[in-house]
Amino acid sequence: MSFSSFYSRLPVLYLGGALMYYLSTWYAYGGFVDKGHPAIYNLTEFCASGGLKFTVYFLVSILLFPLYIKFIVLPGPFRFALLAVLFVFLTGYLEQAGLSFFGWANIFGGRLIIFSYLLAGAFFVMQWQCLLVSKAAEVSHMPAIDEPQKNVTSSLRPLRVTRAGSRYQILPSEILYVEAFGNYTKIFTLKETFLYGSGIGKLCSERHDLKLLRIHRKYAIMESCLLRVRRKGRATEVILEGGVVLKVGKAYLENLSDLGIVPV
User: Fold this and answer.
1) 146 occurs within a structural domain
2) What is the model's pTM?
3) How far apart are alpha carbons 170 and 160 in whole angstroms?
4) pLDDT for 152 beyond 60
5) Beta-bridge mates of residue 239
6) Residue-wise pLDDT tens digits, 60-76
7) Measured between alpha carbons, how far is 9 from 28 in angstroms, rounded to an integer?
């Protein structure tokens, strides 16, 4: 699924989630055994349950999508946690406001309000993963480089990446280091961060012309950007251009030794 098609399918995804939530709560309230319970096709019951909840999810997500796109390729679990907390509490507040406005009751009298927060958190994580996969799919389906660029020497062959929903081509000389990101790779320059549509191992093996030096299971650096290697206690660190400091994994110290680099 491409990133743009994900937007077009949002209404279907949310409606499906609303129906599943409504059916489960309708059953939990005894819909099949309680003869006094409203019928399963009761529109008011649907709106008071899954309809309201997932409408709120949808509206808050649309509000936060610009932040999703901005943060999804940037490092740092703090940003992810911040967005998750923001999503959970915004949806919780708006859902309670909607229930009060229409005079609808909380599920099980509000005794399981924590369940709503957990559901919102789980939905946020699922939606974030779908966005991430959709964003990376754009990288793998990017059009081929224009014909004149195919004749460029391999050392100058650009790397096709994405950032904030837009496609870019960056030169090897712009890359500072790369970081493993699941089945994808974050590409760091001195000023910006991009997303590449393959894992770090595949990137290093397929693009030997980049001269990436693996220093950690998470990191590989551009040899040309390495300023020095230092000891810090028992740890070994590399210092790159721009003052970036990265730890060297013990299993990768030999890679530095092979280049004749000795920590100081």
Assistant:
1) no
2) 0.48
3) 7
4) no
5) 228, 245
6) 887 877 666 565 544 45
7) 29
